[in-house]
Amino acid sequence: MRVQLARLATVAAMLATMSACSHATRARDNEGGQTTTRVHVENQNYLDANVYVIGNGGTRQRLGTVTGNTNQDFVIPEYIIGPANTVRFLIEPIGSNAAPISNSLSIQPGQTVTLTIPPTV
After folding, report:
1. Which in 62, 66, 77, 90 has the greatest CB count within 10 A?
2. Would you say 67 and 97 are in contact if contact means Cβ atoms under 8 Å apart?
3. What is the DSSP letter of 102?
């Protein structure tokens, strides 16, 4: 029970941070002039973590790994954003059984979303 409460608090903190830090910045690729949608991950935990994005259809796409106590930017593939523009993020800390997942978050093409992994996951 205590572990579930701690996980719930962690996911709630992660969601609050994600929602508060979503902002529109139009980043354009040099080649095709396409806008890129990014997630900026701030890992405050000492564990490295694999970061996944989940689209509306439930498709899970690995974005990459962010090492402990560092920041990393990832590009969200265009096909994940799609016409509905809602995604969820899944974090899998390496060396932990925890795998917090966010609620749906509305993202427009070209936006950058900040995702914070708290010190205790």
Report:
1. 66
2. no
3. P
107 in Cβ contact with 37 (< 8 Å): yes
CA neighbor of 91 nearest in space, from 111, 63, 71: 63
Domain membership of residue 30 as a residue range: 2-117
93-104 per-position pLDDT tens digit: 999 999 999 989
> 69: domain CATH number?
2.60.40.780
34 three-class SS: coil
Look at residues 32, 47, 21 and name the one whose alpha carbon lies nearest to residue 107: 21
Number of domains in the chain: 1
Residue in the block written with tokens 């265009």: 78
Measure CA 81 to chain center. 13
